[in-house]
Amino acid sequence: MSSASTPDDDALLDDFLEQRGHETATWEESYNKKQCPECGGLHDVDARTCTVCGWSP
Question: Bigger pLDDT: 28 or 48?
Fold first, then answer.
């Protein structure tokens, strides 16, 4: 049995959390970069926090 999640699993988990008042914002993808959902700053794919506004998932 694989422990890797699928996009459907992620969507179900996000729905579950959102229904209970949790924020589930994640990095958006823009070409080969991550894009901050708060300010739109672009970062390398290994970024953990936004260096522009400080947002982190």
Answer: 48
* Alpha-carbon torsion angle 29, 49, 21, 9, nearest 10: 50
Q: Domains of the chain: which residue ranges?
A: 26-57
Task: Confirm if 26 and 36 have CB atoms less than 8 A apart.
Answer: no
Q: Which helix (H) or strand (E) holds 33?
A: strand 33-35
- Residue 19 phi, psi dihedral angles, 5° rounding: -65, -20
- C-alpha dihedral, 30 to 35 to 37 to 40, nearest 10°: -100
Q: What is the pTM of this model?
A: 0.50
Secondary structure (3-state) at 38? coil
Answer yes or no: are the C-beta atoms of 13 and 25 closer than 8 Å.
Answer: no
